[in-house]
Amino acid sequence: MERRRVVLTGMGLLTPFGTGVEALWDALMEGRSAVRPAEGFDNADMPTTHYAQLPAIDFDAYVDPQRSALWSRLSKLAVTGGILAARDAGEGRPAGGRTGVILGTGYGCTYEFEEQFRTLFDKGWKRVKPISVPRQMPNAPASHLAIEFGAKGINFTVSTACSSGAIAAALAVQQIRAGAVDACFTGGADYVVNASTAAVWNALRVLAKRNGPDASRPFSKDRDGLVLGEGCGILLLEEREAALARGARIRAEVTGVGMSNDATNIVGPDVAGEAAAVRAAIGDAGLSPRDIDYVNAHGTGTEANDANETTVLKETLGARAREIPVSSIKGHLGHTMGAAGAIEIAVTALALERQKVPPTLFLVPGDPACDLDYVPVPRAHAMRHALTTSFGFGGQNAVLVLSRA
Predict the structure, then answer these.
(1) Could you tell me the domains of the chain?
(2) Which of 34, 208, 310, 340 is deepest in the core (most CB within 10 A)?
């Protein structure tokens, strides 16, 4: 039996650069950074004070405010992303009964938890609102997204730290291939830059200390840590024949997925585990390393991750690793946690579509552990197949192969 083919037809992006695909792409091509001093909480005494926060979003322009008044911020973000993805996919939506939702989030509804705990400790439990329960449920955004589109197929929430959005997308591909659904809203979303999250990440001591727009420096010799960001990337994946039948525009085809677990360290990266996901994705696509034309890398800007990922690419791609461009967009918009993998899938699709590689911002070459072609400025480049990698705390890895439509 011929394997069902899966295509990407719609992308709903909300990033620190604003709303929509072009807002992000233009910022990448222009070499802009969204990293800036934090707003909304006092962090003056923290070592790291700069993050990539989402700008104010007029959710009422997308969702009826009466209906969404009791939703979490994350639910509003995810549903808005879904609406943008559906619009991007063109007229006519997939049938609701054959559409699923698989959504990733690294942190869930952090703002609502922080709000509830503040009320609890300041005013006592009797002042806590009962609506806090559905507002705080990590699965609420996926449920609201399904309600918005009448998506009655499989619905669940993935939380695998930094790889949440990519693993959600990989699982959606498998569901469509298996015939469980014909379409799936997937990807990831995270609203994380608040006092409590900033505090624990500062305590972990993995954040960049530069405290300027150039703080996030993937693969750079002088990198010193990651920058927290926020965002949403909702992807509409569809079975190819069904998408063509309804006249959808196909942005890219997802030809390979690979998932693995390091099973070694809760926060430290592992070459063997990540390499297993890369090899699985390439094999699943029916390709060999010589077929890969570009890698959109996880590239967090930490010393350990970037050196480890470079080794992974050299081990899995062989000589091809030195012949092709590799870039990370986290220099532009920080690490958007559970949304990162999904946003990077979208950027990889755009790179294939437009035959242009986004740059690795603020790159200072010279680290012998990071010795690949990391593309300091945008570059025109002929591409047929591209890898996008996503490696999460917990050792949970996802790698996808996208092919030009």
Answers:
(1) 6-245 (3.40.47.10), 254-404 (3.40.47.10)
(2) 340
